[in-house]
Amino acid sequence: MIRALYYRVLALAGHPKAEAWLAIVAFAESSVFPVPPDAMLVPMCLARPAQAYRFAAICTVASVLGGLLGYAIGYWLFDALAMPVLRAYGHDDAIARFTQWFEEWGAAVILIKGLTPIPYKIVTIAAGAAKFSLLTFFITSVITRGLRFFLLAWLLQRYGMPVRVFIEKRLTLITSLVAAGLVGGFLLLRLL
Q1: 87 Cβ partners below 8 Å, 6+ apart?
Q2: For the segment 36-52, what is each residue's pLDDT rounded down to a tens digit?
Q3: DSSP labels for 77-98?
Q4: What are the C-alpha distances in Å from 31 to residues 54, 59, 65, 126?
Q5: 38, 65, 85, 192: least buried by Cβ within 10 Å?
Q6: Contact present, 153 and 55 (Cβ < 8 Å)
Q7: Closest CA to 112 of 64, 148, 85
Q8: Which segments within the chain are labelled E, that is strand?
């Protein structure tokens, strides 16, 4: 079922209203939808490299707004709505881990998880469930989601199709290295 949904989202990249669909997918993926917007962002950037940053901006704004919905779900509707969604995706134990991580590491959790392909909806719902600072959540979400989507757009615009295969195989490594650098800088600032 997820694979069929992925291919449907991929097909939307060629739709006349692809930008609107990209925003919808990026928004929904941040709170309830299982397919990441990368499934649309990659082919759209390859088809129209001159607009890659526009597509990244659409993903960033929609993803952060969707993240606010995920935060609200975790904050107000955790037991009634969030747990059934997380159970449906096999992530029901993730909230306890994230809540503990938020207490220990705070914004670093959002910076790390928001850059990687790990489902962002877990971060957004867990942040709300943990009653994490909404302002810090918002700022770190803008930074991390923007970095992720703009890095992907830049790579696709600069290197085109050859980088697509590389990204698909090594996206986790690339984004994890960027996240480690960000978190290292964040922790360094915190210690000073």
Answers
A1: none
A2: 888 889 889 888 889 99
A3: SIIIIIHHHHHHTT-TTHHHHH
A4: 23, 14, 10, 11
A5: 192
A6: yes
A7: 148
A8: none
